[in-house]
Structures are given as structure tokens and as C-alpha cells.
Amino acid sequence: MHHIKKHLQETKDIVDLLDPEKIEKIIRSLVEIRRHNGRLFLLGVGGGAGIASHAVNDFRKIAGIETYSPVDNVPELTARVNDEGWETVFREWLKVSRLRKEDGIFVFSVGGGDADRNISANIVEALKYAQKIGAKILGVVGRDGGYTAEVADACVIIPTVNPESITPHTEAFQSVLLHMIVSHPEIKAAEMKWESEGERSL
After folding, report:
1. Which domains does the chain have, with CATH numbers?
2. What are the CB-based long-range contacts (under 8 Å, 24+) for 32-36?
């Protein structure tokens, strides 16, 4: 019971520490991307890849934003890793996708990438390319935000309340913030199934 209570208390603490203005900044950036008919490209590895794949569905179906992620095409992803290397896999995918300045990159990562220590180098290389193109960079990350936080136009860093639970809390709140964002009145373009059922679903 101790671990459960501790984890739940830490979750409450994180909620209290989150900065609503930074979340709002992401929402404003997404509204602008959609207004200019831009596309959204979602990047993540490990748990972040799972969030990115889930988010593609939500941004397309609920928010009406044309959205893609390289992690959804395993044959291409693994072919590029095998033939070209892990570091460039996202960057080269974005090149083929003809990334434009009207588009956005959204990163879901615990550390946000670290160029000096060669951590999540594929995210770092993709963001360098996005900067070169002039695309918007968004992120929900943990720890100190890493490279993503350094270069992002809008970024939420999930507060660290326990150094031993950075990853579970960051990845959990990435999902929480994803659903908060796509259900925001300025983002939501289509009703979600159970909400649209109204009282019949109760």
C-alpha cells in the first residue's frame, strides 16, 4: 500500500505544479498549425512512441489535424535503422514527408534528447532539421526537458517530484495532457463517441 499511496500523492503534487500557461501555449500553436493547413508530425521512442501513435489517432479524428508519426510504419522505421542508422531515422523520414514551415513537430520524450550525451539522438537530429525548415516545435517532456525544451516554441516539462519515478510519471502525464489538449474547445473539431451518446451511455 505504501507504494500505491506514495505514487498517487506524487501524481497529485504534479497536477498542482503543472503550468497551465505552457499548456495553453501548445494549444495556441496547434490552432495556428491547423489554421495554416499545416501537418503535425509526432516523435517519440519507447513509451513516447506509444503515446505518439495514440496521439495520431486523436489529433486526426478529434482535432481534425492532418497528423503522422514515423513509429507507425515499422517496416520503414526498421529499414532506415538498419540501412542508415538510428540517429537519422526521424530526420530522413521528415525529409521524405516534405516538412514545411507551416507544419509542427510534437515530441513525447522523458528526457527530451541530449546532443552532448548522444541520448535520443534521433529526436535531436529531427529537431535540428525542423529548426532549419522553420517548423513549429512542441513537446511534453520530463526531467529538465533536454534538447526539446531548449529549442521548442511551446513545451511542457512534467515536474520531477521523485527522482526514482521520473519515467512513469512523465509518460502517464503525456497521456493526460494529450487528452486535455484534444478535448480543448479550441482544438476539438469532432465529438468523441461516448460523449456524443449523451445520457444513453450512462
Report:
1. 18-188 (3.40.50.10490)
2. 32/136, 33/65, 33/102, 33/103, 33/104, 33/136, 34/63, 34/64, 34/65, 36/102
